[in-house]
């Protein structure tokens, strides 16, 4: 008798891998971030990556990281978490978001207002910077759970024969 596979991806592994894949759509030369929103049934309802707003030609806006605000990407880029909320195909209340980077304070406000209940993130490389300190403070006050994704194993992408 053939038994079912036991080494299947967990939901965390699956959705974080999808977040990494959608991040590759970003044209940002320094940071590629991705986010996946899933409902209570583990159905994907929204995807997002960091980039300029729809209709804004990315050849006419700056990708610079330093200088006056209007001369840098920071004045224009929509973060992955925000785009995932904007792209959601149903209400995000009670949902989880998987994101490649811990959300900044602006994204935290969007997640709180949209009813996200849990944040699963891969990297927290900006942990000690004020926008991320503010983010954690707001998420705590709103009683939104957050936890760091810990990969269980290295994924294989080769086809099964």
Automatic annotation (TrEMBL):
InterPro entries: APOBEC/CMP_deaminase_Zn-bd, CMP_dCMP_dom, Cytidine_deaminase-like, dCMP_deaminase, dCMP_deaminase-rel, Deoxycytidylate_deaminase_dom. Keywords: Hydrolase, Metal-binding, Nucleotide biosynthesis, Zinc. One of its GO terms (molecular function) is zinc ion binding. Residues 10-139 form the CMP/dCMP-type deaminase domain. CDD domains: deoxycytidylate_deaminase. GO terms for biological process: nucleotide biosynthetic process; pyrimidine nucleotide metabolic process. Its cofactor is Zn(2+). Zn(2+) binds at residues 79, 104, 107. It comes from the Bacteria. One of its GO terms (cellular component) is cytoplasm. Pfam families: dCMP_cyt_deam_1. The active site is at residue 81. The keyword Metal-binding applies. Belongs to the cytidine and deoxycytidylate deaminase family. This is Cytidine deaminase.
